[in-house]
Structures are given as structure tokens and as C-alpha cells.
Amino acid sequence: MAEPARPERVRLLEYLRTRAAGLDAPRLRARVRSAATEFEATLADLDEADARRPVQAGEWTVAQVVDHVAQSTVRSAEELRHLRAGRRPPGPPIYEALLSGAAHRVPWTELVEGLREATAALDSALGEPGERDGPVAPSVTAPAVLVISAGDAAAAPEIFTAELTWPEYALVVRLHFLDHRTQVRQLRARSTRST
Fold first, then answer.
1. What are the DSSP E strand ranges found in the chain?
2. pTM for the complete prediction?
3. Which of 16, 42, 48, 124 could disulfide-link 108, Cβ–Cβ 3.0 to 4.6 Å?
């Protein structure tokens, strides 16, 4: 017997469905763009050493966060292209810990450039004409792995898969940028205090 959904999960899914239904394609694209810009702004003035400095054992460095966001964003752009064309994307969903491994060997400037390229691909996917560009979400869905952080830092996050339309999926990408923006801010603040 399945456990009932936690209230946080229900709230997130309701938020996605309600917000997606109220946004047309240009406004949705603008919100995703804004979140991507906010994420990139957190990287300003970081050098190679700062980006790779571990803050706590077992925790990602800023370079790993950037790599994760870039890799996830490239895949998201491709999935959104399929969804906007009325097709279910092939392959498995993007998992929550996607990393390329480049964060350990590629120069910091190349990681940031990869992020910019991924963001441009996403923006392009959101700007392409879709099956429907109005506020009504199309019926084609894709599975998306969602993560809800626990309020208590010691508690494990809830990870689950949900079927999302392209506007809902785009909102998840927006939230992904914002969550990792906050993560980078916290890493930078803690790194400054420890040096």
C-alpha cells in the first residue's frame, strides 16, 4: 500500500499546475530567463580556487553545482523541445545528482561557458513555437525527478517522479535555477567564514 503524499509534495504539484495554467509561453520564458540570470549572478567574481574549494566533506563545490546545472539544463532543453512539439521525450528523466565529471578537470571559465551555452539552448527551446503557446497546457507529459528539501537540515530530502506538461516542466527548471542559486550563495558565505 502506497504512503499518502507529504503535504510539501501536494503543495509543489498544485503550485506547478496552477502557475503553469496562468502563464503564456512568453511570460514563462521570461521567468526562466530571470532565474537563470540570478543563478549566473551568484558566480560573479569567483576564481578557479574559490569555485573548487570544498566547504564541507561530502558536499558539492560551486564548480560541481555549476556542472550539475549546466548538464541538467542541456537535457531539459532537449526534453522541452520534444514536449513543445507534442512528443514525449525519449529516455529516462534527468536524475537529481547529474554530473559530468568535468567539474574536477575542466577550467572554471569553461564550466561557466558551458552553463551559458546550456542556458542559451534552454532559452531557444522555450522560444520555439510549440504545439500550443497559450495558457492551456498540452496533454503530452514527461517524467521529471523532483526534490523537496526538508525544512530540517538533518532530514533527507524527498525525491519523487511526477508527470509534467511543458509549462510545468519549465517552471521546475526555473525552480532548479533558484534552488541552486541559493545553494551557491550559502556555499560562498560558508567558505568566506571558514577562510
1. 142-148, 158-164
2. 0.90
3. 48
